[in-house]
Amino acid sequence: NAGVTQTPKFQVLKTGQSMTLQCAQDMNHEYMSWYRQDPGMGLRLIHYSVGAGITDQGEVPNGYNVSRSTTEDFPLRLLSAAPSQTSVYFCASSYRLGYGYTFGSGTRLTVV
Amino acid sequence: GEDVEQSLFLSVREGDSSVINCTYTDSSSTYLYWYKQEPGAGLQLLTYIFSNMDMKQDQRLTVLLNKKDKHLSLRIADTQTGDSAIYFCAESMEYGGATNKLIFGTGTLLAVQP
Hints:
The complex is a heterodimer of chains A (112) and B (114).
Chain A: E1 4-7, E2 10-13, E3 19-25, E4 31-38, E5 42-51, E6 54-57, E7 64-66, E8 76-78, E9 87-94, E10 102-103, E11 107-111
Parallel strand pairs in A: 2-11
Antiparallel strand pairs in A: 1-3, 3-8, 4-5, 4-9, 5-6, 7-8, 9-10, 9-11
Chain B: E1 5-6, E2 9-13, E3 18-23, E4 31-37, E5 43-50, E6 55-58, E7 61-66, E8 71-76, E9 85-95, E10 99-104, E11 108-113
Parallel strand pairs in B: 2-11
Antiparallel strand pairs in B: 1-3, 3-8, 4-5, 4-9, 6-7, 7-8, 9-10, 9-11
């Protein structure tokens, strides 16, 4: 099925651990983004990419790294997990600048 | 600043119409969107409207845009229990000179009573 696939769906980490949230899309979209969703804060942009090999920071990039070696994949790395990174993370992709993004089903991350 | 505002909660009876309202800030936004989020799920793009349009209809959904007041609304006709979800308004804003980011409202929880 065409769309945005995120893994894992749930994850619990201890403070200081690192991990990678996976995101893959099979729609040949150039634009991909990571958002986090927190109660009362809406969704905030973490990092984005406008094509393979091109990434940049969003509003809340600290503590996260991204890379885009292929059009399909856009992993998000947590370098040293902190409780403040407890959130639901969404990956999204779009085929055209400014056009509506297709979202994955999310990864619910808890850092203890 | 960036701020998209929505009311937090709306309750309607099954079969009635629902109207969810949103105000946005960036008058240069090209696209405005409505997303639906069911419990434990991702965001589903419901519909969008170009900034040069006043209205868009898509089956049971009607989007109205008042650019002067920066007001966007989503009307759902013949609301069903399956429409119960959180609805997010979002505007697309230029970011970093190379992309657009979506500015989301905090969402409106629509509860449909049978």
